[in-house]
Design goal:
It is a single chain. This protein is an alpha/beta fold. Helix content is about 40%, strand content about 10%. The chain has a single domain, classed as TIM Barrel (Alpha-Beta Barrel). The protein has 13 helices and eight strands. The chain has an eight-stranded parallel beta sheet with strand order 1-8-7-6-5-4-3-2. Strand 6 (about 180-185), helix 7 and strand 7 form a beta-alpha-beta unit. Helix 2 packs across helix 3 and helix 9 (about 250-265) packs antiparallel against helix 12.
């Protein structure tokens, strides 16, 4: 952490910090809409020593924030409340003025999140994705104003490439903006690409790192095995690329699951605990966001905070999935426009 205090550091109550999202992603219309059940899950997390709850305005069209707000209302001062903005709140809303990282949209998005969460401040507000159509100077400017207004306590990013993290730090310094304090990247045994750039960059600039999907959407629980079909649900339909067994990357996952399961058995722990312990071992990781959907899952995942992997086990994991390798590149939810927009790779016809 380079001596810098960040919201991520507030979550450290145990030797191995674990942060719970308490299934905010799958609460509401996108998953379990039982608000009372969600509250029980969040209260179980808080009683266990968790003190950061992470959600997003987009989840379930804003309903997830409402669920979290109700659940923490009587314990607000005990919680580091984190949410994100960037995407349209209404799924597939194509209006360009209702998404992105512009001053206009983020000002409205923050006020709407405050209302849904039922609070007067957001402890950590994260920009959910980069916005190629908005200069980072504008984004940092509006977020700095919102911090100075007392609506936000600190700001961070999610899925920002290393070079954009650097640009944001330099821009904040040169333009006297409040800098981003955290980054939230995907990181797991199966998604190790960020080891090459994002994690070292975060360490260099003292950013807290809250990693998401440490179980790779359930792959690292051993739920999906070779020769067995993957049951389809709404979530898996929405991110079909992560479960399509015709993709070579997902075939590589099936092979790795078998080898990792054998390693976990040999070590006397579950594959889930092996995966969670791995994610928290990297020195650049501050906290691991858990995505438990039930109290039973949460209780089991919290027990992983007591697991420490020795060098021999970590070396054998490296043999199964090499450092810096992501088995299925589609598991990175954000792809740079230079790769997705063909016009950015081709000179205009009249210049050819």
């Amino acid at each position: 952490m380079s001596g810098r205090s960040t919201p991520a550091s507030w979550a450290r109550r145990k030797s191995r910090a674990q942060v719970a999202r308490t299934s905010a992603w799958m609460r509401g219309a996108w998953g379990n809409s039982d608000h009372d059940d969600a509250a029980r899950l969040i209260h179980t997390a808080l009683d266990a020593g968790i003190n950061l709850i992470d959600t997003a305005d987009q989840y379930s069209g804003g309903e997830a924030e409402e669920i979290v707000g109700k659940a923490v209302r009587d314990r607000r001062d005990d919680v580091v409340l984190a949410t994100t903005g960037h995407f349209p709140v209404r799924f597939k809303d194509e209006d360009p003025n209702r998404q992105g990282n512009s001053r206009r949209w983020l000002t409205k998005a923050v006020d709407d999140s405050l209302r849904r969460l039922g609070t007067d401040r957001i402890d950590l507000y994260q920009v959910h994705r980069p916005d190629p159509s908005t200069d980072i100077d504008e984004t940092l400017s509006v977020l700095s104003d919102l911090v100075r207004a007392g609506k936000l306590m600190a700001i961070g990013t999610s899925d920002f490439p290393a070079e954009q993290l650097v640009e944001a730090q330099w821009t904040a310094d040169r333009r006297s903006h409040i800098p981003f304090r955290t980054e939230q990247p995907p990181y797991s045994v199966f998604v190790r690409g960020n080891e090459a750039d994002v994690l070292p960059t975060a360490q260099k600039y003292g950013l807290g790192v809250l990693t998401w999907s440490p179980l790779n959407s359930g792959w690292l629980t051993g739920r999906f095995r070779r020769g067995e079909p993957i049951e389809t649900n709404l979530f898996r339909q929405a991110v079909a690329h992560k479960f399509d067994l015709d993709l070579p990357g997902n075939q590589r996952k099936l092979d790795a699951v078998e080898r990792l399961s054998a390693l976990a058995d040999e070590a006397g722990i579950s594959l889930t605990h092996l995966a969670l312990a791995f994610a928290s071992t990297h020195p650049g990781v501050t906290s691991v966001i858990l995505g438990a959907r039930t109290v039973e899952q949460l209780t089991d995942q919290l027990a992983a905070s007591e697991v420490q992997l020795d060098d021999e086990i970590l070396d054998r994991i490296d043999e199964i999935v090499a450092p810096g390798v992501t088995l299925n590149p589609a598991d990175f939810d954000y792809r740079r426009p230079a790769l997705t927009d063909s016009e950015q790779r081709r000179r205009p016809a009249h210049h050819r």
